[in-house]
Amino acid sequence: MKFFVDTANVDEIRRINEMGLCDGVTTNPTLVSREKRDFEEVIKEICSIVDGPVSAEVTGIEADEMVKEAREIAKWADNIVIKIPMTEEGLKAINILSKEGIKTNCTLIFSAAQGLLAMKSGATYISPFLGRIDDMGEHGRDLINDLRIIIDNYGFESEIIAASVRNIAHVEESAIDGAHIATIPGTLFPKLWSHVLTDKGIQDFLNDWEAYKKELGR
Ligand code: G3P
Asked: Which end of the chain has less Cβ packing within 10 Å, N or C?
């Protein structure tokens, strides 16, 4: 399973990358706006740090606007993926871009039908939003399972990016259910590698080691 880092913050990306845990990055207009930096500059910097796909989102509403933006953004680096929202216009844009060999990530997917349409239009990646589905009192996990079944039934090449990942269970369940990728906020990673019993275990070992050295007079 691959991990993408869901952030536009280069310090977070560097930190996760140092552990070999960053297979790519996803951004969106909200994440980019938090950095208070020029869009092109920050995306180019991320692309230079990461040896993997970097999603940058278009903001146009009509297909021709999306395609125009996408063609420009795609020139910024070799590892750019264009993030396109799941709309009728978005599907048109994905179809055009996929035929031009430009990689796309169809975002804001909340149903199996939306995912299926994105796959058929040629999306390289599809991004179901787990956390936002859970927020509605539904089960994001079910959508990951359904999308994986559809991909396996028909051999679609699109890869599932479990997105809107908010907690440890989202990461674990996405891995168990066969999402190809989980895109994880930088702030969630420490929760993934930490465990209270690991901390306690380390402290117990150190205490015992100190007692042992004292006993031997070293
Ligand atoms: O990957 C999509 C993500 O950035 C949205 O997350 O927490 O705003 O639903 P969230």
From this structure: C
pLDDT at 218 over 80: no
Q: Hey, what amino acid is at 182?
A: A
Asked if residue 7 has its Cβ within 6 Å of ligand 1, the reply is no
**Which pLDDT score is estimated for 68?**
98
Integer-rounded Cα Rg, in Å, for the chain is 20
Nearest atom in ligand 1 to 163's CA: 1
- pLDDT tens digits, 30-87: 999 999 999 999 999 999 999 999 999 999 999 999 999 999 999 999 999 999 999 9
Q: Which atom of ligand 1 is nearest to the CA of 31?
A: 4
What pTM value is reported for the model?
Answer: 0.96
Give distance in angstroms: CA of 124 to centre of ligand 1: 19
Buried b (16+ CB within 10 A) or exposed e, 96-130: bbbeeebbbbbbbbbebebbbbbbebbbbbbbbbb
pLDDT in tens, 163-209: 999 999 999 999 999 999 999 999 999 999 999 999 999 999 999 99
